[in-house]
Amino acid sequence: MTPRIQVSDKETSFKFCIFNVKILPKEEGLYSDVFQNIFLREWAFNTRSDKYMEIHSLSALEDKSVIEGELIYYTILNGNDWYNRKTKRIENIEIDTNLNPNAKVGEFYFVPNAHRFCFVLKSGGISPSQVKIFLEKSLQRLCSEKEIVVEEETSHDFLEIIKQAKSIKRLHINITYTNDDLTEDFEALWDDDLKRSKIGRTDITAKALKKQDIDLVNNQVLMGALQLSESNGYAEVVVKEGKLNKIYKTTEYPRIEIIKTTMNKKIIAVRDKILSIFR
Fold it and tell me: Model-level pTM greater than 0.70?
C-alpha cells in the first residue's frame, strides 16, 4: 500500500456518507487488507449501463488504522454502430480501450476496526448508490466464500420522525446482525439473537388492526428492530397524515457527517469520528 503523501495544513470542511461493510461470518483481521487486495488486482466493475468503477489510488497510516483512497467512475464505449454524419452511414470503429470518457473521481476513507467506508460527497460527483454497488460487487468477488452485506447508515432523523408519528399503519423492517457495534436494550437483544441463531437476515412486517394504530413507542421488540435497521438493514413505515398515507424509508434519510479540520489531518479526523460513533 502506498505511504501517505504529506499535505498542507490549510483548513478544510467536508461531508461524507457512511457505509457499514460486513463480511460474514466475522474473521479477525479480515478488513485490514480487503481494499488493498482489490486495488492490486486493478478490477473495474460495471455499476450502471456503460459505467464502470475502480479504485484509483490507495494509501494508509502506518498502523493501518485508517485507509484513504480515490474511486474513479467512467464510461466504457462500444465501437459498434456509430453514426457518421459526414458519410450518413452507420459504422463500426476501433476504440482505444485505455481511454474512457466522462471520468469522475471520488475520495473515500475506510476504518477497518469499525468496518465503515466513508465516501466524501461533492456536487456533481459520484452517486453513493453507485459506490454501494461497487462495494458489493468488488467484495463479493474478493471474498466469494463469504456473505457480503453493505448498508448505508441512516440518519437519526428517520427514527425521530417515526417516534413522533401519530398514526402508524404498517412497518416493514429488514435487518442483519452487527459486527460487534455498540447496541443497547432491545436493539442488542435482536442483535444477540440473530448471531446465536446464525440467521443472516430477518424480515419483519407489522400491520395495525383495522381503524387502529401501531403503538411503536410501547413495543420494545419493534423499536429495537427499527433501531438496529439504522446501521444494519432498512425499514419502511406507513404513516397516516391527514387523509393520506405517507411512506417513510430509511434509504431516503442517509446519515451525513460534517468534519472541519486541516488538510493534513483529514484522515485522522475521519478515523476518530467513526470510532467515536461506532466503537
Answer: yes
Q: What are phi and psi of 21, to 5 degrees?
A: -100, 120
Q: Is 257 left (phi over 0), alpha (psi -120 to 50) or beta?
A: beta
Give the type of residue at 11.
E
Per-residue pLDDT for the chain (279 aa), expressed as one digit of tens each?
Answer: 666 655 678 999 999 999 999 998 888 888 999 999 999 999 999 999 999 999 999 999 999 999 999 999 999 999 999 999 999 999 999 999 999 999 999 999 999 999 999 999 999 999 999 999 999 999 999 999 999 999 999 999 999 999 999 999 999 999 887 766 655 555 566 667 666 766 778 899 999 999 999 998 888 888 888 998 999 999 999 999 999 999 999 999 999 999 999 999 999 999 999 999 998
C-alpha triplet 31, 177, 147: angle, nearest 5°: 55
Among residues 45, 53, 42, 44, the alpha carbon closest in space to that of 102 is found at 53
Cell numbers at 104, concatenated? 469522475
Q: What are the cell numbers at 28?
A: 479477525
Show the cell assigned to 66: 485508517
Nearest to 49 by CA among 125, 122, 102, 110: 102
Cell, residue 30: 479480515
